[in-house]
Amino acid sequence: MDAAVAQTLFLAGCLSSLLILFIRKTMYQRDKLPPGPTPLPFIGNLLQINTNGTAKGLIKMSEKYGPVFRVYIGPEMTVILSGYEAVKEALIDQAEVFGGRGNMETFNQILRGFGIAFSNGEIWKQTRQFSVMTLKDFGVGKRGIQERIQEEAQFLVENLRKTKELSIDPNFFFSQAVSNVICSIVFGNRFDYDDKEYLHLLQMIDEIFCGISSIWGQLFDIFTSIMKHLPGPHNRIRRCFEVLEEYIAKKVKQNQETLDLNSPRDFIDSFLIKVEQEKQNSSSYFHVKNLIATVLILFFAGTEPPTTTLRYAFLILLKHPEVEERLHQEIDHVIGRQHSPCHEDRNKMPYTNAVIHEIQRFIGLVPLNVPHKVTQDTHFRGYMIPKGTRVRPMLYSVLHDPSQFSHPENFNPGHFLDERGNFKKSDAFLPFSAGKRMCMGEGLARVELFVFFVSILQNFSLKSNTPPKDIDISPAVSNFGNIPHLYEISFVPR
């Protein structure tokens, strides 16, 4: 073999080897998992994650591993998405793939895969579609529901006036007002503010949210098979859920006994009519178990998130009295003291609108988002995410993304105002999540927050015995939910 032939064969061999290496590397890159810290057996990366302030700890990790990375929360791998671009790409651009719901056993121990929040597949699609349509039938998204909210705002104002400027914890005043709106839809009636059974139900909802957000609730979700056999505060979550479940089951039975198939009085009636229509279908998803689970989540989600947002809102105003003063000026100028605020007023009130948006952005109520899971093997940003993997598209990382908000860690209504003082939208304003699993009550919550918030400020000035500089607006608990510190406030008639 002459030298030329040998050289040619050598070069061909080198090129072949390089090609094989390139193909292997490409396949490896395509199929590799996202990066992340090395886990320990059983506990995973728990020792590396701040158990109170989990979202901030994970955002710090993203500085090292990038906007897509993996952590082991206990024995289970979770893919974390951090920042607006990564979350948007997953929840909006690839909505179908990232539209599965990951499990949270604190909820599912009572929901058992039914309802609209933690179900998957066809049961979720049919139940959600029915729920959205039925809520619209009962006024959600229409003027009818706003009139109910305005009426309830007046009840709230009257009850705050009865406190006669005493320093009070406002939590249950807010929760009664907010919850009465969803109660009028699902149960067909509102409750008096001194109704003891109603107050007990609201206490259960408050305890559930706090319990799930506590370290005990986290441990139950992570190590369910062990924790369900151990005593501890985590067991209180189930007992509170059972109180709600028993109440709803009682209401369902009452409606069954007086049901008119041609005239539904509330959401429960509408669901029962659907059950009756499909009673010959043995595989139907419309049955009493699914009804109870669906109403439970509507009751819970229609009460707790708006209530906690209002709690946080007025704590922030106590911290920033200059913001309250400017709000009073705009409310007096645009609405006055006699006109009942309506959601359409927000278009003429850019500062008020900006403050409400900034409150929701700043607090990041559900910082990690409710868990998602991918519905198929997914290639995402150069990484392989296996089917069924739990994914946490962190809403806090979107709402506090420095590429989207100039001073994300500060409360600043200017994030939603342009240089001329007009309201400015932001694509990164996603407190209700996005995509197929975004909160179906977003529209209702927006109206409630505006009408209740403005109605209170229209009628009252705020007072605290604690100086603004000493008021802490960081979360007291920051896990599943960001929960504010307890505080007292006086509502002084204007």
Question: Which characteristics define this entry?
Answer:
heme binding; oxidoreductase; alpha+beta; Cyt_P450_E_grp-I_CYP2A-like; Cytochrome P450 2A13-like isoform X1; Cytochrome p450; 494 residues; metal-binding; 5-stranded mixed sheet; two-stranded antiparallel sheet; single chain; 52% helix
How is this structure best described in words?
The chain has 494 residues and is an alpha+beta fold. The protein is built from 18 helices and 11 strands. It has a single domain (104-386, 411-493), classed as Cytochrome p450 (Orthogonal Bundle), CATH 1.10.630. 52% of the residues lie in helices and 8% in strands. The strands form 4 sheets. The protein has a 5-stranded mixed β-sheet with strand order 1-2-7-4-3, sandwiched between helices. It has a two-stranded antiparallel sheet with strand order 5-6. It has a two-stranded antiparallel ribbon with strand order 8-11. Strand 5 and strand 6 form a beta hairpin. Helix 4 (105-111) packs parallel to helix 11 (234-257), helix 7 (171-186) packs across helix 8 and helix 14 (304-319) crosses helix 16 (350-363).
In short:
This protein has 494 residues and is α+β, with helices and mostly antiparallel strands. 52% of the residues lie in helices and 8% in strands. It has helices at 3-31, 54-65, 84-93, 105-111, 121-137, 143-161, 171-186, 196-213, 215-222, 224-227, 234-257, 267-277, 288-301, 304-319, 321-334, 350-363, 395-399, 442-459; strands spanning 68-73, 76-81, 100-101, 372-373, 378-380, 383-385, 390-393, 460-463, 477-478, 482-483, 490-493.
